[in-house]
Specification:
The protein is an alpha/beta fold. The protein has 2 domains: 213 residues, DHBP synthase (Alpha-Beta Complex); 111 residues, Rossmann fold (3-Layer(aba) Sandwich). It is 31% helix and 18% strand. It has 11 helices and 15 strands. The strands form 2 sheets. It has an 11-stranded mixed beta sheet, sandwiched between helices. The chain has a 4-stranded parallel beta sheet with strand order 12-15-13-14. β13, α9 and β14 form a beta-alpha-beta unit. The longest helix is centred in the last third of the chain and has 16 residues. The chain is globular, with a radius of gyration of 22 Å. The structure holds threonylcarbamoyladenylate and magnesium ion (MG). Threonylcarbamoyladenylate binds next to β5, β6 and β10.
Length: 354
Amino acid sequence: MKFLPVSPESLKEGAEILKHGGLVAFPTETVYGLGADAFNAQALAKVFEVKGRPHFDPLIIHIAAIETLDKAANLSLLSEETRKKLFVLAENLWPGPLSIILPKSEKIPGIATAGLQTAAIRFPDNEAALKLISLSTGAVAAPSANPFGSLSPTKAEHVRNGLGEKVDMILDGGPARIGLESTVLDITGDVFKILRPGGTPKEAIERLIGNVADGSSVADTAGALVSPGQLKSHYAPRTPLYVLSREEIINKPYEQNSAFLFYDNSARDEWFSREQSNNNSPLRRGSHTKEEQNDFTVIKVLSENGNSLEAASRLFEILHELDNSQASNIYAQVAPNEGLGEAINDRLKRGAVK
Ligand code: TXA
Ligand code: MG
């Protein structure tokens, strides 16, 4: 791990690390962020691994120029009126501590947004952050650079103490000016909502675009407060999803018009040979290939060698794909409950038929 003060050289080096899929912690005006290239699914999976988050939370995508907004968000999905309001907000409050939820661009992998079709976009007000982002791919996904469950870091030393060798570089830009995370504003619905209060006061937003609702105090059905930013943040496929242990999925008989999602090749191969040894299995007939469609039955593997980083980086894309296939049920194998496996299983279980 490199711990360097912000300088033209260190920023250039940091941008190279990002472009090669590495992780760089960097200063912003709110708190330090743990940055990864927003277009690189494996780099994004690493962010969750390093933070030790037991579940995938959608990340904030940081940009450094309004022209880049189109690479991260699909503004054509917004109404004309909302688009106008967005530009009023951007003109007046960006760069600054305001993250705006927008329909996501297809270029942003599903793991960045935890499977949601929306993305939080932020234009930070910090010279070093802006330079780093513009020298890299122009879009850097970053949660606060702290391990899961601990306080957000406002100094480079906090990042070093919390994450240390797990990141490739920490850029020291001195103490964060605001020291409190950005406000998260959702403008994708009919009613605009503040999902997380933060560095930009509600009044500053309302002065520009009128009333916004306080989404962070909405209670869920059990009466408990929904945690900030967690609203709508669970992606569940429309197709019924069943989560099975390794043994259960291996013994699950072939079923027409279904999708089987194996964790690794070994489970898929065991399932396949059990099917082939069964005289009644349709897989004994014809020239069905293992990987492709069989009578609309889709067989997929999250990671051939069972690498949890790869599995995590593909999870949401594959679930979306299966959801859009003709399968009427999805059977998914749990991941080994270690490393990112815990987060993968959390999301599978949240998306599963109760
Ligand atoms: O100030 C900040 O926002 C810092 C710096 C590094 O930019 N970042 C930060 O990220 O606080 P993080 O990951 O700790 O918090 C992101 C928040 C979470 O509450 C998350 O649920 C919400 O933003 N969020 C992100 N994308 C979302 C989406 N598509 N829909 C709803 N909430 C979203
Ligand atoms: Mg955080």
